[in-house]
Amino acid sequence: MKLTFLGTGTSMGVPVAGGFGSEIPTGDVRDVRWRTSAWIQTNESSILIDAGPEFRLQSLRSGIKRVDYLLITHEHTDHVGGLDDLRSYNYVQNQAIPVVTTPTCKESIERRFYYMFGPNKTPGSVDLDITTSVNPFWFKDCRITPLPVMHGTLEVYGYRINDLAYITDSNYISEETFELIKGCKVLVLNALRWEPEHPTHFTIPEAVEMVKKSGIPEAYFVHMNSYVHHAEISKRLPPNIKLAFDMQTVHI
Predict the structure, then answer these.
(1) Cβ of 188: how many Cβ atoms within 10 Å?
(2) What domains can you pick out in the chain, each with its CATH number?
(3) Is 235 exposed, middle or buried (0-12, 13-18, 19+ CB in 10 A)?
(4) What's the Cα-to-Cα distance from 83 to each of 70, 75, 122, 176, 214, rounded to whole Å?
(5) What is the pLDDT of residue 163?
(6) How far apart are CA 76 and CA 102, in angstroms?
(7) Residue 138's pLDDT is what?
(8) Cα separation of 126 and 34, whole Å?
(9) Which residues of the chain register pLDDT less than 50?
(10) pLDDT of residue 154
């Protein structure tokens, strides 16, 4: 199984439009981060996790030819803003794209992208088949388990896909969800910044503690802001934990 990080940045991306605060470009390409998203490839499956505002560009630079399944973590725009750009996959695949997400995200998508659904669906608009089950299921050669976690007061889904656990936009993982990821080989986890604490995201030190608690031997951090400089922060991390960067690939 191959994991490609399509983007590893926060909701505003890195660098932020117009500049923000006192961020200073480092010249390191790893510090340019599009909105967080991932692509999973197996022998039989091409699975997308989230479709943010840069999805069209992400799909072109990574060469995504099929989207067999879409896993959406939650309804914030940096995770669903690119849904319109799935149209071309509908045309080529000639079928609706199956989607799993949370109940609140399903409601939000159907309200905000109303023209994609119902009897008045706009011809040619994206065709999605959305379900909200939390039960594990098989899709071709992938066993997929939704992982409920908290993003402040909002429940979002991470996902376990075979031996990969992918959790973004969270600041609380329950004991039940830790049980669901037990035995994974790789953990992807959000880590917004070094400090201070944040009401809806893990900081990097908090994320390190979550990795230790999980017992998963290899971890990658995503959803990092512009003040996280790859070369500098990497030196502070345990050897089994790395900052992910856009277009990085990991084989699991």
Answers:
(1) 27
(2) 2-251 (3.60.15.10)
(3) exposed
(4) 10, 11, 14, 31, 32
(5) 98
(6) 12
(7) 98
(8) 23
(9) none
(10) 98
pTM for the complete prediction? 0.97
Please name the residue ranges forming H helices in the chain.
55-62, 77-80, 87-93, 103-112, 175-180, 204-214, 230-234
CA distance 214 to 7: 24
Residue 156 CA, chain-centre distance (Å), reads 11
- Cα maximum dimension of the chain: 55
Q: How high is the pLDDT of residue 24?
A: 72
Give the residue among 114, 109, 40, 39 at the shortest CA–CA distance from 80: 109
- CB atoms inside a 10 Å sphere around CB 127: 18
Give the tokens for residue 230: 């790859």
Q: What is the rounded distance in angstroms from the CA atom of residue 146 to the CA atom of residue 136?
A: 7
- Quick one: tokens of 110? 């159907």
Report whether 68 contacts 140 (CB < 8 A). yes
> In Å, how far are 25, 67, 139, 157, 172 from 151, measured between CA atoms?
29, 26, 27, 9, 7
Sequence-separated contacts (24+) of 44-47 with Cβ below 8 Å: 44/140, 44/141, 44/142, 45/69, 45/139, 45/140, 45/141, 45/142, 47/71, 47/139, 47/142, 47/144, 47/161
Give CA–CA dist 194/14, Å, rounded: 16
